[in-house]
Amino acid sequence: MARMTVDPFYCKGCGLCIEACPKKIIRLSDKFNEKGYHYAECFDQESCIACKLCYTFCPDVAITVEK
Amino acid sequence: MARMTVDPFYCKGCGLCIEACPKKIIRLSDKFNEKGYHYAECFDQESCIACKLCYTFCPDVAITVEK
Amino acid sequence: MKIELICSGFGGQGALTIGKFLSLAAMKEGKDVSWLPSYGPEMRGGTANVAVVISDKQIASPLVSHPDWLVALNKPSVDKFGPMIKSGGLMIANSDMCPDKLGREDVEEIYAPMSSIATEIGSTKVLNMVSLGVIIGKTGLVKYETVEKDLREILGKKNPALLEANLKAIKKGKEIGEKS
Amino acid sequence: MKIELICSGFGGQGALTIGKFLSLAAMKEGKDVSWLPSYGPEMRGGTANVAVVISDKQIASPLVSHPDWLVALNKPSVDKFGPMIKSGGLMIANSDMCPDKLGREDVEEIYAPMSSIATEIGSTKVLNMVSLGVIIGKTGLVKYETVEKDLREILGKKNPALLEANLKAIKKGKEIGEKS
Amino acid sequence: MEIIATRPKSLTKAQFTYCPGCTHGISHRLVAEAMDELGMRNKTMGVCPVGCSVLAYNFFDCDMAEAAHGRAPALATGMKRARPDMHVFTYQGDGDLIAIGTAEIVHAANRGEHFSVFFVNNAIYGMTGGQMAPTTLPGMKTTTSPYGRDEKDIGYPIRACELLATLEAPYYIERVSLLSPQHVIKAKKAVYKAMKFNKEERGFTFIEFVSTCPTNWGYEPMKAFEWAKENMLPFFKLGVFKDKSIEEEGK
Amino acid sequence: MEIIATRPKSLTKAQFTYCPGCTHGISHRLVAEAMDELGMRNKTMGVCPVGCSVLAYNFFDCDMAEAAHGRAPALATGMKRARPDMHVFTYQGDGDLIAIGTAEIVHAANRGEHFSVFFVNNAIYGMTGGQMAPTTLPGMKTTTSPYGRDEKDIGYPIRACELLATLEAPYYIERVSLLSPQHVIKAKKAVYKAMKFNKEERGFTFIEFVSTCPTNWGYEPMKAFEWAKENMLPFFKLGVFKDKSIEEEGK
Amino acid sequence: MADKVLMKGNEAIAEAALRAGCRLYFAYPITPQSELIEYMSKMMPKVGGTFVQSESEIAAINMVYGASGCGKRVMTSSSSPGISLKQEGISYISGASLPAVVVNVVRGGPGLGDIQPAQGDYYQATRGGGHGDYRNIVLAPSTVQEFADMAPLAFDLADKYRIVVLILSDGLIGQMMEPVEFQPAKTEEEIEELGKQHESWCMHPNEDEPNHHHHIINSLELDPNVLSDLVLNLEKKYIEIEKTEIRFEKYNISPDNEILCVAYGTAARITKSAIDELKKEGKSIGLIRPITLWPFPSEAIKQAINQNVKKILTLELNLGQMIDDVRLAIEGKLPVDFMGRVGGLVFSPEEVKAKIEEIL
Amino acid sequence: MADKVLMKGNEAIAEAALRAGCRLYFAYPITPQSELIEYMSKMMPKVGGTFVQSESEIAAINMVYGASGCGKRVMTSSSSPGISLKQEGISYISGASLPAVVVNVVRGGPGLGDIQPAQGDYYQATRGGGHGDYRNIVLAPSTVQEFADMAPLAFDLADKYRIVVLILSDGLIGQMMEPVEFQPAKTEEEIEELGKQHESWCMHPNEDEPNHHHHIINSLELDPNVLSDLVLNLEKKYIEIEKTEIRFEKYNISPDNEILCVAYGTAARITKSAIDELKKEGKSIGLIRPITLWPFPSEAIKQAINQNVKKILTLELNLGQMIDDVRLAIEGKLPVDFMGRVGGLVFSPEEVKAKIEEIL
Ligand SMILES: Cc1ncc(C[n+]2csc(CCOP(=O)(O)OP(=O)(O)O)c2C)c(N)n1
Ligand SMILES: Cc1ncc(C[n+]2csc(CCOP(=O)(O)OP(=O)(O)O)c2C)c(N)n1
Ligand code: SF4
Ligand code: SF4
Ligand code: SF4
Ligand code: SF4
Ligand code: SF4
Ligand code: SF4
Ligand SMILES: [Mg+2]
Ligand SMILES: [Mg+2]
Question: Is the peptide bond before E146 cis (omega within 30 degrees of 0)?
């Protein structure tokens, strides 16, 4: 079991994690964060394989991956 | 026939021409020039082969070679 | 006559451009104008604003601490500059992004759904032009025709589609302004 | 007591060193001293000179425009500084390289064949020390012993041969000075 | 469940001030991770450049100095010489490092100063609004090369790694890129290596990151990566240009 | 009888102010001869460095400008850009060119500026009295490396030709020496070639002269040559580092 | 074209320089000056001129040095830290008696500071931040129009006196847009002609004997006696400039002025607003606005002091620099008060008004 | 060792700096300062310190910036053109409130000028050749002894105020030998201790939470309100220094002075000679010799003016720079005369005497 979480405080909605994820389980939320960005979220934690590629590519170090 | 002459005005008596000359026909004069240097002179014009090596090596461009 | 105004919004919303077209038109109509932007890294992501002064005499200071009018394209702009508006002044705000009223009794407030109107027209980019229209309609500071002429000169050949969208937006705004 | 002197010669003749050992000895003997060299590219090939002031009071200006004494190791030095010597002053010149007399009636001139003496001693390098000796012998400005001590400290271990040559040269000069 | 990836301790809690999708953030993280992994944070001093990363002192949670434009290697020299017991790195952009700071980087490298340089090559002056950099590609339009960089008039981009590799002293020089997660994984290894050599006092280490500037290039972040792969990588070849550890360790 | 060798017209009548046996004089003559032979004197502007050759404007009989220390390539850039119809060269020492002036030479070369650089590498700061230069050899004693240059502390000498040859734009880069009449004959060809390319507007040309400084090295001129042959030539290898004419002319 | 256009100060000075015959421009980007370099990069190729983005500010000023030695109208620009880097070069250009125009769009300092408008470089500009005895003519614009007008003026002065003319602007004037009217552009023939005025000394194509010349551009002279003469010649030039080139504006100067303000550039504009307000309230405040900061309008300030004037108020966007020159001008005749802002802050007309009321 | 040694000024300041605990020195050669760097290159390794011959003056001042950020006593030196190149760095160090010592052995300018002694860098030194509002403490020695004594003083002041202290010497004081007595050398422990005073702000090894700190050395602050506070804090420091750190020498000051001379450094020495001569002739001339050029001893000059003093004579080896400060000090109370030499020339005592006699 694995879990990927995005801290909306850091996320700028650049979408790089979405591109990086091999499982394609990340999307931008409908919601805004304080800075007005649609932040990323994992919509299918079950499928996460904890490959950390999202974390690796995230320029705002907004992602935490657990396993 | 060839001729090598040194202009004492320019010569600083460094002796490079003496080293350069394959015929070994250059020496420093006993006389001083205005700056107090013993300037170079050719003591055997007859033997000069106009190879220009003295001119080539003279750092003060004091030498004229004629042929 | 001397009007000092501030146009403010997110970087990218085109607040500076509102000021530019106002100044340009006013200049063409014989006024002295000054246009002073906030600049530098604060623009990146943050709010961008411009201070515009329009006067029929020579303008000494281009700084505007207490605007006669405020054009606010987003909430932070209302928060930041709303309290500074001169008593008897005017605020024109984008109701789509400014949920709360300023609530000053001494200031007239005009709210227009600029984002919605722009989306309707088909280009979110032109939301700033709506506010420009509101100013024209409400205050008559500059003539619509002058602005249209400037826009035609600048955009006419390069981007006729954008030109039309811009003009539509201004007209829409003007209507709102005239009615307020 | 305040003596201002200039030591001058070709670069390499050691005019600056004369001044240095004089100053050093005078300092050891409780005087205030200043040693101000000419410096920079002019030294390359050209003449080098140093202005030395020795006084029993604090020295204000280290500049010497009109020396009490001149030590001239070559002709250009005589030409340049000879006319500047104060009336009643003294010139000590290297007769080997200063063919013409200064010819001032108000200045005492001592000529010593410094180059020859140095060659005799076996090191052309010590010609400057001859002049140092002449000063000591003639004027008693500093004591021979003080200079010897300094020289021993500086050269003693590093170069005993040079030390001996130096001392010989000074003594030789001293004799000449005492006789003049 | 255990956290297997999260913000390194060597980063502060501050939000980066970079544009969305800007690679400065990635290279920051790599440097911070290396500090964490090598346990160096408490003995490390970093130097920020003048450039978009000018505020990096707010992001790296170690002691930091802000240099004058281009002079980071000189500051780092002073710092390392003053505190040989600490580890030093500079973080510099392409304008900073190979335009105004050319002399400083060449000579710090040539002296073999014992610090690491992290060089973010985004082919443009990001902070000042997209002017031409010494690494701007031929034909590339910027605000000061509005007709495209004319290599006949102002020359070709400078390749810093190749240039510095002509010097004797540098210990380790590698060019990596940040243009895909796979590239980042490789880059991470290089950064770690550089900081490890740094910790071990082996000498001067230099990592160039082929990066992007979506904002001033005028591309969305992903498009910027594609553009960089197509245009920058052919000119700025990835690879190790110097690695003295290979001889030293005989591998 | 006919004069077959005498002072070139492109030299003034002034005596050089260099020390006896100093190679600055030889390189001056080579540049002047090239100007004579190519008939360039009336359309040439030279730039002097700060260094022993600071007074070269008194020696070259063409228009001359005196640069700030290290900035000759920047001056030359301004001059050539202002007067594209004229030919420009700089004449620089090692301290001038590859210490304080590192950024200027790298960038002028990188832009491929259309001028020639004559670089006198004597491994020392001559004018200021023999301090260490960026080209001072390991172990060599100077007034600021009194215990010998410690390459572990301050690095190895910089090889300017190799460094500049990593750039795309330079047209012709060669290192020659002035350590014997034979070397000088070779050097003359290189100088001529550089000035010819200059006249033909081919691009940036760069000649390094491995030279001597008898005064500050503390050797007699001939001994200085021997020392240089033994010590400098192994480190500063003579040769052509770049010559685009070969491709261009298909030879 | 005598039509007014709406333009940023940075762009207006660039356009005006081109019209004044500037065909060589070398610079390095820096905020808040970058629009100037960007404008030049766009327009220089169109007028057949040369723009080189140099590797640094140092390279830029030395490129200027080289180009100016060829007698051409040449310019560079930067903002505060970049201008500091140019000091050695400016000293050289001054020592070599070359004409050049340098624009400083001042920002907040010291150090990296910030990028907001400031006047903290007054000392550097007027006292020579470089080494040795030299002076630059310093022009301080207070509107975009004036900024633009200073380009032809600066080039003319530079050419006339073979001197560096520094235009000391700031981030506010550089970044703001105002209507501006340009002088007609010089034709290529006129520009050619301008170059010819320098033919007696500048580097240019040569002839064979007997007309062969050998022009030397330099600031070195190892003989102190000769160098002294050269510097004394510079001094003569400076004295001449002090006699003839002082420029200033009088604003609301009248016999009933109670306070005399002295301010330049942006600070002066804001002061004018305050003076206008106070006038409405019946208070008479005069302003001398130096347009040339060097030579400084000392005489004008002295003359503006009348019996009613109780105080002088110097207003600057710094800790107080021009105040030295004001004090020197009035020689202790009156107390000199100061109002300043630093760090890129700009005082508002209201604040100035309050200050004046306080000291009235 | 309290014995006197005979030493060149350049070497004496180097030795004194080492004794004062300077263990880091970065510089680039230039005449007439090179003996300083040569002495350091020889002695630094012996005391376990660091000397790096930097690639340029710019690199040197930025190495100083880095080392000073670590709280260490660090120095650089140069001569005029090299000091111009350091202006940006000095502005940064000042903006970052770091201690540092900079020595300028002034030569003739402007430009490349010559290498003879001069005082043409007074403006640059006292007004800040760099950008923005900042001040450096400026010390001007007039003997080799004083030059040496200024090293410990400079480091102490730099540490105390976290400020750049500039020692403004010249080629004459740098090149001449005079007897000099050194203060005892600080021990390694004392030097260590000195560093500790800066631990609250400087970069140094760190700890883990909760005591983890994060020291930042910088001069950047993008928010003008915050930057303004920083600059106003600098100003407070400057005001404090103006109150407490003024240093000057009174020479022959007495109630019957007819002329009051003001001169510093080399010019002051020569003036003293002239005053001594005139004293013999029964003429009473006083001299105020500023030792700190900034802060400037204005009050001392004012106080030295008595009823007999008819004129002030400012003597400088330049076109007249300190004269501004003299004029500012006396606020128009007396005419201020000037005697100067430029280009590396130095007036002789006889010439000064003649000048004084002329204006008496
Ligand atoms: C002396 C000086 N010159 C110029 C500047 C302006 N400036 C600030 S950042 C910068 C360039 C930044 O580009 P780069 O180094 O590539 O970093 P990036 O922003 O792209 O990461 C410039 C020119 C300055 N601050 N100081
Ligand atoms: C800005 C500046 N820094 C330093 C100097 C002093 N300086 C004059 S020449 C020189 C070095 C000369 O060495 P090099 O370039 O090798 O020429 P060489 O004399 O050996 O021919 C130096 C450091 C200077 N004039 N200006
Ligand atoms: S860890 Fe891998 S699988 Fe999980 S969300 Fe991130 S990229 Fe996708
Ligand atoms: S990569 Fe990071 S910043 Fe970008 S959208 Fe994903 S979580 Fe947010
Ligand atoms: S080489 Fe030239 S300078 Fe040297 S001795 Fe011969 S002629 Fe004279
Ligand atoms: S030309 Fe040749 S042979 Fe004749 S003197 Fe010169 S070197 Fe000797
Ligand atoms: S401007 Fe470019 S480099 Fe700077 S933060 Fe934005 S994307 Fe990154
Ligand atoms: S010092 Fe050296 S380089 Fe300079 S002229 Fe003398 S020998 Fe030549
Ligand atoms: Mg960049
Ligand atoms: Mg050299």
Answer: no
Residue range(s) defining the domain that contains residue H342: 249-359
Type of residue found at D123: S
Residues H89 and G87 sit within 8 Å (Cβ to Cβ): no
pLDDT > 90 in chain B, percent: 88
Instruction: Tell me the C-alpha distance between H183 and H20, whole Å.
Output: 8
Q: Is the ipTM of this complex over 0.95?
A: yes
Question: From the CB of B40, is ligand 5 less than 6 Å away?
Answer: yes
Contact list in F for residue D44 (CB cut-off 8 A) is 17, 19, 215
| A61 vs E contacts (CB less than 8 Å) | 7-8, 11, 16, 25, 28-29
Whether residues H185 and H258 fall in one domain: no
Other C-beta atoms closer than 10 Å to the C-beta of D57 total 10
In whole angstroms, how large is the CA radius of gyration of chain E?
17
Q: Which of E12, E17, E47, E66 to mutate to test the interface with H (most CBs of H within 10 A)?
A: E66
Instruction: Read off the DSSP letter of residue D83.
Output: G
CATH architecture of F24-248: 3-Layer(aba) Sandwich (3.40)
Number of domains within chain G: 2
Q: Is the CB of E52 under 6 A from ligand 7?
A: yes
On chain H, the residues whose CB falls within 8 A of the CB of E66 are 96, 216-220
Residue of F15, F16, F17, F22 to test ligand 8 pocket, by largest number of atoms within 8 Å of CB: F22
Protein residue whose Cα sits closest to atom 6 of ligand 6: B54
Tell me whether H222 touches chain C (CB under 8 Å). yes
Tell me, in angstroms, the distance from the centre of ligand 10 to residue H129's CA. 30
Does the predicted model carry a pTM greater than 0.90?
yes
User: Closest residue of A to E220, CA-based?
Assistant: A14
Query: How many helices (H) and strands (E) in chain B?
Result: 2, 4
| C neighbours by CB contacts (3+ pairs under 8 Å) | E, G, H
The HSE-up count of residue C84 (CA atoms within 13 Å, CB side) is 18
The pLDDT tens digits of the residues spanning E125-137 come to 999 999 999 999 9
- Are H353 and H276 in contact by the 8 Å Cβ rule? The answer is no
Asked if residue B1 lies in contact with residue B67, where contact means CB atoms within 8 angstroms, the answer is yes
Tell me the per-residue pLDDT of D51-97, one tens digit each, with 9 for 90 and over.
Answer: 999 999 999 999 999 999 999 999 889 999 999 999 999 999 999 98
Ligand 8 atom having least distance to the Cα of F129:
1
C-alpha span between E64 and E57 (Å, rounded): 5
Give the closest residue to H157 by CA, choosing from H172, H167, H169: H167
Does residue G237 lie within any of the structural domains?
Answer: no
Instruction: From G165, G158, G160, G161, select the one nearest G141 (Cα to Cα).
Output: G165
- Test mutation, G25, G26, G70, chain F, max F CBs within 10 A: G70
Pocket lining: E120 vs ligand 7, CB cutoff 6 Å? no
Parallel, antiparallel, or unpaired for β E44-48 and E87-93? parallel
Q: Give the residue among H84, H38, H61, H32 at the shortest CA–CA distance from H266.
A: H32
Burial of G306 (0-12, 13-18, 19+ CB in 10 A): middle
Domains and CATH numbers, chain A: 3-66 (3.30.70.20)
Give the Cβ contact number of residue H255 at 10 Å: 10
